[in-house]
Design a protein that fits this description.
This protein is α+β, with helices and mostly antiparallel strands. The chain has a single domain, classed as Arc Repressor Mutant, subunit A, CATH 1.10.10.10. The protein contains 5 helices and 3 strands; from the N terminus they run H-H-E-H-H-E-E-H. Strands 1-3-2 form a 3-stranded antiparallel sheet. A hairpin with a 2-residue loop joins strand 2 and strand 3. It is elongated and about 45 Å long. The relative contact order is 0.16. Pfam families: HTH_5. This is Transcriptional regulator, ArsR family. InterPro entries: ArsR-like_HTH, HTH_ArsR_DNA-bd_dom, HTH_MetalResp_TranReg, WH-like_DNA-bd_sf, WH_DNA-bd_sf. Keywords: DNA-binding, Transcription, Transcription regulation.
Length: 125
Amino acid sequence: MYDGGMSAPLEELVVCPDHGDGRECCSLSCGPLDTSRAQRLAVMLKALADPTRLRLLSHIASQGCESVCACDLTGPLGVNQSTVSHHTTKLVDAGLLAREQRGKWAYYTVIPAAFQELCSVLDLG
């Protein structure tokens, strides 16, 4: 069975806490999703479903509130400029990154509200 490249077998992953009384319960802390929010989240999650985009996003997010030049993303990730451009465009379109043009280079920052929304949905209570 494909496990998405995860290091632990799927059978070993604990998704929901065991409450010790025979029940396992996972509930979204934010309640059921309406259509609009579900569509918005699906766009973000689809953008995140790529290892290169996850690496780009984590590299940019690791800088906190500082902008990161596209020129500084190729070396650490071992990808060329066109690959960076392609993937950052997907992340911008998904609402996860903001892009600012400064001369010939684009600078990227994370959009905190997008991450807060993702965290609120992924927080199983």
